[in-house]
Specification:
The complex is a heterodimer of chains A (272) and B (438). Chain A has 272 residues and is α/β, with parallel strands linked by helices. Chain A has helices at residues 19-25, 28-37, 67-79, 87-92, 104-112, 143-154, 166-172, 197-200, 217-227, 231-237, 246-255, 261-271, and strands at 8-13, 39-42, 55-61, 80-86, 134-136. Chain A has two domains: 8-154, 3-Layer(aba) Sandwich (Rossmann fold); 166-271, no CATH class. In chain A, strands 2-1-3-4-5 form a five-stranded parallel β-sheet, with helices on both faces. In chain B, β2 (33-40) and β3 form a beta hairpin. The longest helix of chain B is centred in the first third of the chain and has 32 residues, at 103-134. Classes of the chains: A alpha/beta (272), B alpha+beta (438). Chains A and B meet through α1, α2, α5, α8 and α10 of A and α2, α3, α5, α6 and α7 of B.
């Protein structure tokens, strides 16, 4: 039998909570096999000796939020044949990107008392800086999706992104519709693939897997308005995990008055 | 990876007995920090630990958001101890609104935190710390010789994750705990299934204690203050804050007791107690609240040297056994019934809550407006509280070993920092170590 060459894999972390890396470590039953059937040469969270590229596959967790990270992601892209954005932060900026919708003063002063302590740039998904081959959505991503993507790549297949909303799996799981109960569920416009995990426990979808590509967001916004949510609240529903995505940015841009990107850019360039 | 980079200048000086050593990235910890050691004529002059994890500004990100958004967002501070953050957040919100939850909710939360703490300890002990002591690069490399040990670790970790999943909905960023209770009560069959697994694997928890008590820890002794909860079941959920001197503080007083400082160039804040460093975490909990351990776990207390920070590993192992005993006790008496979260309405005011996160005391302090939107937030993490103590310990540990080979000095420094199980993504990420010698 011809044994294919082991994939050389790198796992990297940018601005994040490290939860996506833990999601990989949480694959307890498969972990030993993952490590023996691939060649993971870069994984600083779990290994003391880490090598530089080139890599066959790089998994990157976290948002780009410092000038150094901007350089690292470009280097990782150059060193890798296949690049996977792991989780919401790498995909869309995630929770750290909430700050992009406020001014520097509004964000930095409450925490560090001044804007001079921290050097920070916009928090964005890695796709804003480099070409991404696969987006593994979710906060945290589903560990079995990680396993699936890795297996496909190991046998030389290009994995396909799930392209259905959370509602599909939610209906299959026979959950009651929380939108009908007046809760601001984001299931209809959110990327599925999570097996509607939150909804199975009667928690409405907060859209952590980001917007489905051809989703029609406006009717949902009207529904929220009808339910009695204020514009301010609605704006915040869309800035939780994927505010910087193109689709949500349209909504946030419309309802959110503090977002003035050029203003941001100008200030940050001066600062940086 | 310990990247030792002797810079050119220091290399020259090294010949004369003085040099600069740079340790760029300490691995197997959560996050990024840098350490600067200045050595002049073989004397340690300065120790400076700076965290330069990219700041995430959580206390600002949650502002002006509805109360039900706060716990899911603050959970994202840390991927490994997320249940601790989300729980503390809920309790602070409930404190502000004056919500009283049911006894069942308290028990389930208690159970969730036992699961989180032991899962975190197992991960830290076996995957991050143990390879140092057995001389391997990683747990995976360690598996080549100690397959049974690594398998045991993975099975223990899996069990902890399953407990968190059954109660919280998933292992990372669980969501079923909400303000006022739980959105879903775990099924009895699943809890009973867990109970039999916990009973069957208790021997592995015991093996963990035996393994980590007999490891050879580097010698180091220091005097310091320890802060931890006092309660009667060594719970991580509720308790009074006590310190080694026996002085209790009410939660509301934390601002007067602990001083939060901001360091230029460091994204993590550090916390002092009346101007002095202190420590918390497993070692502090055993010191302050050791009597509350389960009967079998208490037996091992005598073998812990509370003056040696490396013994935090031993302390964590003992807590693993304690968590097993408590989880079994709770699950044996489990008779959880279906109930909805208690009803409440948001009201303006301030709420403060403490829990014992795996790495130590965690506080969330919120102020809400009359519509239930958050107006002010303050979060103090255990790593921020331990940060100064790490510096102080290094000042004591490093001078006697300065004559040893550099690789050894660096290895031991890393082991010390790792023994605190620091979580720099909580406190703000990288350990970049620089030793400057003159």
């Amino acid at each position: 039998m011809i044994r294919p060459k082991k994939l050389k894999v790198g796992i990297f972390s940018l601005t994040s909570c490290a939860g996506c890396q833990f999601e990989i470590l949480d694959l307890e039953d498969d972990l030993m096999e993952i490590f023996s059937s691939t060649n993971i040469t870069h994984f600083p969270m779990a290994k003391a000796k880490n090598e530089e590229g080139p890599f066959d596959v790089a998994f990157v967790e976290g948002a780009v939020s410092t000038p150094e990270e901007k350089k690292s992601i470009k280097r990782i892209r150059k060193d890798s044949k296949y690049l996977v954005a792991l989780g919401s932060c790498a995909s869309y900026g995630g929770v750290p990107s909430i700050k992009d919708f406020y001014t520097e003063e509004e964000i930095e002063v409450p925490v560090y008392k001044s804007t001079r302590v921290i050097k920070s740039i916009r928090a964005d998904g890695i796709g804003n800086y480099v070409k991404v081959d696969y987006y593994m959505h979710g906060c945290p991503p589903n560990k079995y999706e990680f396993l699936h993507v890795l297996k496909e790549l190991m046998v030389g297949k290009i994995p396909r992104q799930p392209d259905f909303p959370v509602c599909k799996e939610c209906r299959e799981n026979k959950n009651p519709c929380l939108l009908q109960r007046g809760q601001p569920c984001m299931g209809p416009i959110t990327n599925g693939g999570c097996n509607s995990v939150c909804l199975n426990s009667r928690i409405y979808c907060r859209g952590c897997r980001g917007p489905l590509e051809d989703s029609n967001v406006d009717p949902l916004v009207h529904l929220y308005e009808k339910m009695g949510f204020t514009n301010e609240d609605i704006k915040k529903f869309f800035t939780g995990f994927a505010g910087t995505s193109k689709i949500f940015n349209k909504i946030v841009g419309r309802t959110c008055d503090v977002i003035e990107k050029d203003y941001h850019k100008e200030r940050l360039v001066k600062k940086g | 990876m310990i990247a030792m980079a002797l810079n050119k200048k220091s290399r020259k000086e090294a010949g004369k007995g003085s040099k600069t050593i740079k340790l760029e990235h300490i691995t197997k910890i959560e996050g990024h920090a840098k350490l600067n050691l200045k050595v002049e004529s073989n004397e340690l002059k300065k120790v400076k630990l700076d965290v330069y994890e990219s700041a995430r500004f959580f206390e600002s990100l949650v502002l002006c958001r509805r109360y039900d958004d706060i716990s899911p967002l603050t959970s994202r501070i840390c991927g490994i101890c997320s249940p601790s953050h989300s729980m503390t957040s809920l309790m602070a919100t409930e404190d502000a609104f004056g919500v009283k939850v049911s006894d069942q909710t308290h028990t389930l939360r208690d159970l969730l935190l036992y699961g989180t703490v032991f899962q975190n300890h197992v991960l830290h002990l076996y995957i991050l710390a143990l390879p140092d002591y057995l001389g391997f690069d990683s747990a995976i490399a360690m598996a080549s010789k100690h397959r049974d040990v690594v398998q045991r670790a993975l099975q223990l970790k899996k069990l902890g994750n399953e407990l968190v999943t059954v109660i919280g909905g998933r292992e990372i960023h669980p969501f079923t705990a909400v303000v006022g209770g739980f959105s879903k009560i775990p099924e009895k069959e699943r809890l009973d299934g867990l109970l039999s697994r916990f009973k069957a694997m208790r021997k592995d928890a015991k093996a963990t204690v035996d393994l980590f008590l007999k490891l050879k820890y580097p010698k180091l002794e220091r005097e310091s203050q320890a802060f931890a909860f006092v309660n009667d079941k060594h719970s991580f959920y509720r308790g009074k804050i006590n310190c080694t001197g026996g002085v209790c503080y009410s939660e509301k007083d934390y601002e007067n007791v602990f001083e939060e400082h901001i360091k230029k160039g460091s994204t993590a804040k550090y916390v002092l107690y009346r101007g002095k460093p202190f420590f918390n975490g497993a070692l502090a909990r055993l010191l302050v609240n050791g009597d509350s351990l389960s009967k079998d776990a208490r037996k091992y207390l005598g073998e812990v040297n509370f003056k040696n920070p490396f013994h935090n590993n031993a302390a964590q192992a003992i807590e693993v056994l304690h968590c097993f005993d408590r989880i079994i006790e709770i699950l044996e008496n489990n008779n959880f019934r279906d109930e909805n979260p208690v009803e409440f309405s948001p009201k303006p005011g301030r709420g403060i809550a403490y829990t014992e996160a795996p790495r130590g005391l965690l506080v969330h302090d919120y102020t809400y407006d009359e519509t239930g939107h958050l107006m002010k937030a303050n979060i103090i993490t255990p790593t921020a509280q331990n940060l100064k103590q790490m510096e102080e310990d290094l000042k004591i540990m490093v001078p006697p070993i300065l004559n040893k080979p550099e690789q050894k000095i660096k290895g031991q420094i890393e082991m010390l920092i790792r023994s605190y199980d620091p979580c720099f993504s909580c406190s703000a990420h990288f350990l970049d170590l620089k030793i400057e010698r003159r």
